[in-house]
Amino acid sequence: MPFTTILPVVFSCFGLCFLVLLYVIYKPPSWLIDQLQRRWPDVLFQVSTTSRQKMVALTIDDGPSASTAEIQAILDGHGAKATFFLIGSHMPGREETLRELVRSGHELANHAMRDEPSRALPAAELSGQIRRVDTQLQEIYDSNRAGSGSRLQQPSSRSRSRYFRPGSGFFSTSMRKVVADSGGRIVLGSIYPHDAQIPFWKLNARHILSMLRPGAIIVCHDRSWTAPMLRAVLPELRTRGYHVVTVTELLNATDG
């Protein structure tokens, strides 16, 4: 077969493989998530639950922002809870917003100090960032506990769960050790509509709803288009019988 005839076939095969790879990245099949969870059991992708209730954890990255209060209002209006993975440099000046999240029963977690790929950081720098953000989070819980008394819905500050989500979502052996040494756990997810890059809330809502299964962890971002997405997703989740909870609540329903 002449080379000029083979070349288009080769390019077509490469193109098809590339499209398949993109699709798997965008909508990873459940068997792949299962395999990832077995391969790295210390990293949380999803939870196998024993609860008879259908539960999913909702996580929201990159806050706080000007959109956080609106996102909280929508969650509270639908009886949904979320774990907010916060960037330390975004927190100053928005402490009251974060205290209100805790008062409403939401959960705060660590998304490093800056919006950057955490995997590229030296171990010492990553460890320092995790400690700094953990200190900021602890101060929010402590101040809320002191001012709210029995009205505080979250566990005491002493028992605050220590979750870390790396910037850009990639981890390494070194990172796993740093996080474990800090007393934390890496939390990723099993449903990610790539909403940080795709600002089309209808498309993102369809993505989430198409991948639902009990024990899933949904990864979203604190953006201006997140509110309309949640307005579409949360009622449908309730219609399908799902309870939307924090990471800790989902883990409490695990079968281990």
UniProtKB/TrEMBL annotation:
It catalyses: [(1->4)-N-acetyl-beta-D-glucosaminyl](n) + n H2O = chitosan + n acetate. Gene3D superfamilies: Glycoside hydrolase/deacetylase (3.20.20.370). Coiled coil: none annotated. Its EC number is 3.5.1.41. Keywords: Carbohydrate metabolism, Chitin degradation, Cobalt, Membrane, Polysaccharide degradation, Transmembrane, Transmembrane helix. Its cofactor is Co(2+). Residues 147-163 have a biased composition (Low complexity). Residues 54-245 form the NodB homology domain. The chain crosses the membrane at residues 6-26. PANTHER family: 4-DEOXY-4-FORMAMIDO-L-ARABINOSE-PHOSPHOUNDECAPRENOL DEFORMYLASE ARND-RELATED, GLYCOSYL TRANSFERASE-RELATED. This is chitin deacetylase.
